[in-house]
Write a structure and sequence with these properties.
By secondary structure, the chain is mostly loops. It has one helix at about 5-15; strands at about 30-35, 55-60. The longest helix has 10 residues, at about 5-15. The protein is elongated. The model has no long low-confidence stretch (mean pLDDT about 90).
Length: about 70
């Protein structure tokens, strides 16, 4: 399936983009984080993602991140 120009435009408007704020670290009991199917425009996966100590599930698929997932 190939999206039309207006569908691509609507998709781009509905996606999260920009940076992931380190204030997520304040969510001490966060266990599930799904950022899939967004457009982070090739930014690096933030190092602090590895510091989310209770995180059990992380989905970054099709989110246009670059780099490795921090340990």
């Amino acid at each position: 399936y190939i999206m039309s120009g207006s569908e691509v435009e609507a998709y781009n408007r509905s996606c999260l983009s920009g940076e992931i704020n380190p204030s997520l670290l304040q969510l001490k009991y966060l266990q599930h984080l799904d950022l899939s199917i967004n457009n982070f425009q090739g930014i690096q996966i933030p190092d602090f993602i590895g510091s989310l100590g209770e995180l059990k599930y992380l989905n970054l698929s099709r989110a246009s991140f670059a780099g490795m997932i921090p340990p």
